[in-house]
Inverse folding.
């Protein structure tokens, strides 16, 4: 029996096994072998955690003053130079403060970003339990909003699956995230809500924008979930083998020289 989902167990490994989420589904879509190893706790991707912390720093600010204070208290080591508040806050978080001010100074942002913050939603997609956390949910206005931090809103990103450049939003699967959230909100509250993404950039002079997600993109992402999910579930439960992408850090670190590839067939991205 699944334990009740709450703020203290939302990001737990137990929940990662018991329910699906966009971030985990997305990981499996990128590389099943790496995702499974990470889920099992035998592999930790050597990632730079600062961008994640910058995002959480900004999110906590717009959640509530209390949440922001708690976040700062819990991350003194990462936020301050030498982990010491007397030495001043690190450059990245000065930038985050700048991003916060950029949004705060915009009266349209204040009007838009009204609603309940960090709302947990659950539901079932094609027979599998899913969970999600909504940055800002306004059931009265049939709207939910997600805050995103990004290096540059207008940078192009190569999409291997689409064979073309896409925006940061599609490159990070925000169309999938919004499609899932829309469905989970409907199942949790019985209300159909439209998503809006509010993005703010990490440039010295932060850029910002508010973006909607076309229904056609969201429908395509739900179709993708329906098609890919049975195999991903089977991989999670050990009845099917995970596919290796052969170029992520996990695959590189566990590779053996097997196949000989013609030089004009070497995949590039
Ligand atoms: Zn891989």
């Amino acid at each position: 029996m699944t334990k009740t989902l709450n703020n203290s167990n939302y990001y737990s490994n137990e929940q990662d096994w018991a329910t699906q989420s966009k971030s985990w589904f997305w990981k499996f879509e990128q590389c099943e072998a790496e995702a499974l190893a990470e889920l099992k706790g035998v592999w930790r991707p050597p990632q730079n955690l600062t961008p994640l912390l910058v995002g959480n720093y900004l999110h906590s600010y717009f959640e509530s003053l209390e949440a922001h204070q708690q976040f700062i208290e819990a991350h003194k080591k990462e936020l301050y130079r030498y982990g010491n508040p007397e030495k001043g806050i690190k450059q990245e978080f000065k930038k985050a403060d700048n991003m916060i001010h950029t949004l705060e100074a915009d009266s349209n942002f204040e009007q838009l970003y009204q609603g309940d913050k960090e709302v947990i939603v659950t539901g079932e997609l094609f027979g599998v339990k899913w969970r999600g956390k909504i940055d800002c949910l306004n059931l009265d206005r049939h709207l939910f909003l997600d805050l995103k931090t990004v290096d540059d809103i207008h940078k192009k990103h190569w999409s291997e699956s689409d064979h073309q450049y896409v925006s940061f939003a599609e490159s990070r699967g925000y169309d999938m995230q919004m499609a899932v959230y829309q469905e989970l909100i409907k199942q949790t509250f019985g209300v159909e809500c439209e998503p809006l993404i509010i993005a703010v950039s990490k440039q010295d002079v932060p850029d910002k924008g508010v973006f909607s997600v076309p229904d056609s993109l969201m429908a395509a992402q739900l179709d993708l979930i329906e098609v890919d999910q049975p195999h991903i579930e089977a991989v999670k439960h050990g009845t099917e083998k995970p596919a290796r992408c052969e170029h992520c850090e996990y695959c590189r670190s566990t590779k053996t020289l097997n196949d000989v590839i013609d030089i004009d067939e070497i995949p590039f991205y």
In short: The first strand starts at residue 116 and ends at 125. The mean pLDDT is 94.
